[in-house]
């Protein structure tokens, strides 16, 4: 049995050109890509679910490449990232946790320059369930200017035996970020935190 059967891929990109105050020099580009697929472990308890993680790695990599292209950016222009999962009602939260490795690995493979852990969220849901994907700086988790979230919602997913896996990226900080803390230009890049 094939572990993966993708029903659909949804990509969303937005361009923020103004946020009160003066217009920024360049718009902030924010994007998400979501894959809706079968949950091979839905409907009952399966002890070893880890085979799906390895099978998902090429999916994560393809999604990351697709999102960067949709955003019209080069990998080195991506400054923020995050990931998440919505598990249909016939699955368990742990099926969403399977996305930690392939989602993060896929983005790191395509971006090629990241050091910070990829923030994540997961939940159980039904058709139209929304999820907020946390985002922070790709090289230093403590850069406050890049703390944000992007909401994702697909009206027809997840069905009970489906999974929705999501990647999110941004091209920069929040418009007019001014709450202090570590500046992106001051990142040391030694531990993914500072």
Summarize the structure.
This protein has 194 residues and is an alpha+beta fold. It is 20% helix and 31% strand. It has helices at residues 51-71, 93-97, 100-111; strands at residues 6-16, 28-38, 80-88, 120-125, 130-137, 148-153, 162-170.
Structure description:
The chain is an alpha+beta fold and 194 residues long. The chain contains 3 helices and 7 strands. It has a domain at 6-119 and 154-172: 60s Ribosomal Protein L30, Chain: A, CATH 3.30.1330. α1 crosses α3 (100-111). The mean pLDDT is 95. The relative contact order is 0.23. Strands 1, 2, 3, 4, 5, 6 and 7 form a 7-stranded mixed beta sheet that branches. The radius of gyration is 17 Å and the shape is globular. The longest helix is centred in the first third of the chain and has 21 residues, at 51-71.
